[in-house]
Amino acid sequence: MTEPTHRVGEASWDSWGDPAHAAPLTPSQRELIGQVLGIAPDAGLPRTPEAELRLPPGSLPPDARAALAAAVGDENVDTGAAARVRHAGGKSTPDLLRRRGGDVSDAPDAVVLPAGHDEVAAVLTACARYGVAVVPFGGGTSVVGGVEPLRGGFAAAVALDLRRLSRLVAVDAVSRTATLQAGLRTPEAEELLAAHGFTLGHRPQSYEYATVGGYAATRSSGQSSAGYGRFDDMVVSLRAATPRGTLEPGRGPSSAAGPDLRRLLLGSEGTVGVITEVTLRVHPRPQERHDEAWTFPDFATGTAALRALAQDGVRPTLVRLSDEQETSVNAVLAGEEAAPGCLAVVTHEGGAERVAAVRELCSDTLRRAGGTGLGPERVAHWRSGRYLAPYLRDSLLDAGVLAETLETATTWSELHRLRDAVTDALAGALTTPEGAAPLVLCHASHVYPEGASLYFTVAAAAGADPGGRWRAAKRAAGDAIAACGATISHHHAVGTDHRPWMEDEVGPLGVEVLRAVKDTLDPAGVLNPGKLIPERS
Amino acid sequence: MTEPTHRVGEASWDSWGDPAHAAPLTPSQRELIGQVLGIAPDAGLPRTPEAELRLPPGSLPPDARAALAAAVGDENVDTGAAARVRHAGGKSTPDLLRRRGGDVSDAPDAVVLPAGHDEVAAVLTACARYGVAVVPFGGGTSVVGGVEPLRGGFAAAVALDLRRLSRLVAVDAVSRTATLQAGLRTPEAEELLAAHGFTLGHRPQSYEYATVGGYAATRSSGQSSAGYGRFDDMVVSLRAATPRGTLEPGRGPSSAAGPDLRRLLLGSEGTVGVITEVTLRVHPRPQERHDEAWTFPDFATGTAALRALAQDGVRPTLVRLSDEQETSVNAVLAGEEAAPGCLAVVTHEGGAERVAAVRELCSDTLRRAGGTGLGPERVAHWRSGRYLAPYLRDSLLDAGVLAETLETATTWSELHRLRDAVTDALAGALTTPEGAAPLVLCHASHVYPEGASLYFTVAAAAGADPGGRWRAAKRAAGDAIAACGATISHHHAVGTDHRPWMEDEVGPLGVEVLRAVKDTLDPAGVLNPGKLIPERS
């Protein structure tokens, strides 16, 4: 009844995930997309073979290398080309475009693989001492530049790959908590928890690769957040190594003993410390799961229905509502006839009795709000492809289609203004000189009593300068989000790509507070430079 | 169906609340308590009449006074004795003992009453410039020394009374949020929200006096936290004045744009800024309320039942379970026959349909866990007295009884070990030389999937040095809590009284982080000195 706990293969260096899952377009799909977006049949963004990459020589000073080897063992300081290339960045479209073009100039000088908290601490001490930038690396799935090995003025940068921190440290079955090391990927974590009868319930699109430490560092939110909560709300306590020592905030299920310092580490994206261990709320593996599709006449009616669910406290495990455009494109991709209106996916998980009770309350609410239940069949296509959309992006790039996503969140009362503003910004920036408009799809998900997140998917002709075109679109969308007073990211984090809007987000004094925390914990400034916190001007 | 929105009278200077609500003991109650605790009939802690107080002259420098008058208007800088005495501290038992003894040496040099955010900011600027400690003051109900006007090495201290910040600024009925000024007391806030059909649902014992700004600054949690959540989880965004400028964190219903800076202000107890406005999640005034008492054979069975509710997500609006001692003492106070076992109070509020559905699930769970429903009647006494217990404390002091409460929280698996340790510590410290043991009562409340809070009420012979006796008991209980790895406060905050355990709570590096934030926002160090953050050693 829960997610597959299968382990996927090592991620490809130049595309999303396991090459075995690649999903090339059929010739007819390619033709249709080309017609819609105005792309010539022979367009396409070529890939550079790995053997032809121009990798600059590593610049790790010998004394730093020796100190790192002393910290983790010589065999765990990898300066080989394969490892460096695979830690050259994350999985944003700009990352993929750079790698297709053969540009791995940003690759770290070494990949360091510590085995536990103390070794992470020793690496940080060594990096602070020798002036080496250190970039924490979990699943490498950042789509905002969060793992780009920027040197930040230092002579060298190392990727701190946490894959060896892969233990389930403890399970408290009575309190339903589990302590996991940070480098555990979700399928591995689920496999370990399943042996105790538990699940985490965290299912972002990056599920196959992303790690529990990465989720904590970026304030991730998964597709089942309506039922299981966003990741930051699952964290009971955590442990982080910093160049100044260890932080272990979180006592009791909740506290009034000063500000919640867990929340300073959650979302800190490796800029003030490296999360090595998290104690999380876990759940019994659900006995039952029930999927149901619903249709609404339009997006406004559908979002009002989601709002009714969130505000009445009748929470399904998962709820998401596609707008008209996304509904019809998904129907085409599923080989179904495009129907008018907006499709919602609703899932309930849990004990049989509770699923039945909540499902009934939920269905009543949705019907009263103007929805029509369509049964479980229409959910099957979504479910089978729920982690596969990023693979499709690579196939689209192969066909000359620039495809990317971005997301935000706001209050219910501002939701439609925000959607219109972002849609207009993306359409304005990505319409080709010949007048071909991009496809802009949107869904609402991650519902809260006060509002929801909006997730945009855009597809457009790549053109001669796809990187430049995406930068312009991202800038326009980000400015539109900031002008609406919405958040620049609901669950993708900040990294490099959202940093220009951080001062809008938290104000200049908020930025100063973040800098003060960083200066205290990382006085040398070696931790993930160039991310999250805006540069001093 | 919701709480009374009545406004109570101005709080007494030397006891808990509105003198009209004082609840003197009957002669037979006094005799019974004296017998149980070994107190002579003529014992009792006398009160010093206000006219006999030895109030030291104010020491506010004339230039500081002029600057404050420029900030808020001369008529809003009150240096009169009545105002100073009423801002001399909070409502802990040590506070009450000091005032009974006529000691108001800690009174502030003036009470400053700003009218809005900009005036608060101007007061902070003036205090930073002239070196005057500034102690934010809401309802004055702190039981941990949070509003004690410590000078922290400065020549003078002012109480910053926020009562004039009493507006409902905005209501967003669609998103169900309301923006309230910080100085609003709960009954006034509920009255303003009721006009829009909303309620806050926050009902701590300090309900009559405490303010929304105070709740935010102390991470309050109310009796209905199972249904409405703790106060920090209700805060969508907030606004704070600091000596360095304004902070306004909180965009969208949630965000991944860096650490959640709202959480740095929540629980900061006026040490880094003054919260002037909060935007809160609100709820429709419930159509229905249903109270039900339940009995369990013992505390372990009862807490397992509460755990089942919290972990299954079947959340009543309110749930609390008294241990055997508290159950029998409450029965005596209600004039009922003492029954064996442990009594729980369960309340459901909301729409009729939802109340019925959740109530059924809840009752099933409690029955399966070994509980027996007793109907609504046994809840009536608890409900009518829910805000009155602190008044009883004053009557007990009149009778020579030292009575106080303290609270903590931990995981379900540690709950009983913690209860035993704290009970033993309190009993050990408060047994009289003649061998009379104190009464130590406990209840579990504020349930979470991972654990719960434990709330202790203790009554003992005051003896010749009640202040010293309480300090010893508090020290023993705090050490027991820290040794168990529990939090030093679940909802009373830190103030002066819990500061000795803050380094246990967040670690030395956590303390450094708090200091760094304070140094950034309050470089002069004038904001509520001596609270929350341990002194540099």
Automatic annotation (TrEMBL), chains A, B:
GO molecular function, one term: alkylglycerone-phosphate synthase activity
Record keywords: FAD, Flavoprotein, Transferase
Protein name per UniProt: Alkyldihydroxyacetonephosphate synthase
Lineage: Bacteria, Bacillati, Actinomycetota, Actinomycetes, Streptosporangiales
Residue sites binding substrate per the record: R393
FAD-binding PCMH-type domain segment(s): 104-285
Region named Disordered: 1-25, 41-62
Cofactors demanded by this protein: FAD
Native source species: Streptomonospora salina
Binding-site list for FAD: 136-142, 218-221, 269-275
EC number: 2.5.1.26
Keyword Flavoprotein appears in the UniProt entry: yes
SUPFAM superfamilies per UniProt: FAD-binding/transporter-associated domain-like, FAD-linked oxidases, C-terminal domain
GO biological process assignments: lipid biosynthetic process
